[in-house]
Amino acid sequence: MTRRQKDLHRVLSLFLVLWMVETVSGARGPFTGTHMSSPFSASDVKQTPTADCREVCGLNVSDRCDFIRTNPDCRSEGGYLNYLEGIFCHLPPNLLPLAVTLYAFWLLYLFLVLGVTAAKFFCPNLSAICTLLKLSHNVAVSFCPGPGWLGDRAVWLVAQERPGRAGGPGAGVLVTTVVAGGIAILRPFTAASRPFLRDIVFYMVAVFLTFTALYLGRVTLAWALGYLGLYVFYVLTVVVCTWLYRWQRRRSLVYSMPGTPEMLSDSEVEPVSSNSYDYSEEYRPLLFYQETTAQILARALNPLDYRKWRNKSVYWRALKVLKLPVEFLLLLTVPVVDPDKDDGNWKRPLNCLHLVISPLVLALTLQSGAYGIYEIGGLFPVWAVVVIVGTALAAVTFFATSNSEPPRFHWLFAFLGFLTSALWINAAATEVVNILRSLGVVFRLSNTVLGLTLLAWGNSIGDAFSDFTLARQGYPRMAFAACFGGIILSILHGAALPSALVARPPRAAGLEPDGLLVWVLAGALGLSLVCSLVSVPLQCFQLNKVYGFCLLLFYVTFLVVALLTEFGVIHLKSV
Predict the structure, then answer these.
(1) 492 Cβ contact partners less than 8 Å away, ≥ 6 residues apart
(2) How many helices (H) does the chain have, and how many strands (E)?
(3) 359-373, pLDDT tens digit by residue?
(4) Residue 524, SS3?
(5) What is the residue range of the signal peptide feature (predicted)?
(6) For residue 451, what is the DSSP state?
């Protein structure tokens, strides 16, 4: 097998795993638009109107619970808890301030869950996959944008029930400005020139296709197939450009001179700096002894380092106490592979448990557990089959391996850990979106204002945590590339495939642009891309804090203009 064939095999292997997960989990999703989703949702698809869920606050107290349970506009698209029922069915009206306060604290804790999962489990496994498959980080994020893309396909179909929301383009602008700008502020860096230009040009083409659909007022099968063709062309471009770049490096003298500007602009390796002190050498025992299986399991499941605990501040300790339950649960359910360690972070008893628990978590988090509780033949639930198969694999692995040496297939745990952590992030982000939507109902925020603010922020929170964590850990290029490159994959899953299903001949999916606001949103997204396309090359791809703050200012200006348009302050003169 030639080197070119090996490179193609690695890319397709990673893409195949992600495609399988998306195919299984894409029947429904909470995200109406992030950089891991299509830039525009189909929230304007024509549908028979239903009663607005915000009207519940104007009803009699005795009628509110029935209204919440019977009105389709009040149903949550996924998640495990029904927050509106908790407010209007299980608590008296005088305890509404208490319910809002509890929801706010729960929301903050979910942010903590997202941060821990992204920093200690999702990002390390993603980095390990890049190392194991010998993929550059820029190529990896083009096919593996992050956790938020898991539910994108159904947004175009589910949004038919939620007319008037601007969460899709609102979050698209947020990601290309706030998230991208935040990365530049957290860790100024030099962007990879060719991957950046490639991704942003394809992104702009996708936005142009969306403009076309809005102008025509419908989604045709030809339009959906055009999106599919765009993604196929994008995949071929990424693979061919990667081959050409590596071929040029091998044939050029620049390959042996890593300090030159050419290597710096397109370097696929980012130095990782760490200021944390390594206590392991100081406390390493003088005499070597063999740990028992029980000791290995106990140490692997212990999220607290007592040596660090003694030297930390009270604030750090209080925050650590809040993190302990989350970290313990994640250690128990998510394997982490570390190629930098001699043993690859192999923990035989814990990894064997992962073979049982991680697939069970996957089954119970896909579609909020809908797949896991499905009964095969009406008798045997899927989760029970998963447990039986996982137990058999764990038993074989336990007796066929040793504590001291990892098996040859240990690298597969990186994929298992990546998928499990991505679904944990997706589940937590789903709860965030549902809480924010419930608060929007309580405070009677309009659907458009809700989509521009709370839902757009909530929809982006899982991916923003992942990108900011990557930047802090020394991978700003990888995080920045995800803001632009990952959108192409999400357009395929979040827009093209559902639209192809809806727009099968002889019918087409109708779009009803919501007046001037839709064009403000679309124009802002296109303008943010043009600004980055022009300004980044002018800075010689050196992205600093000034560039980041300019993007933040752009988003604030966009948000003000969009809200003024929604409230009628800015409007078109009637002819």
Answers:
(1) 227, 228, 231
(2) 25, 6
(3) 999 999 887 778 788
(4) helix
(5) 1-26
(6) I
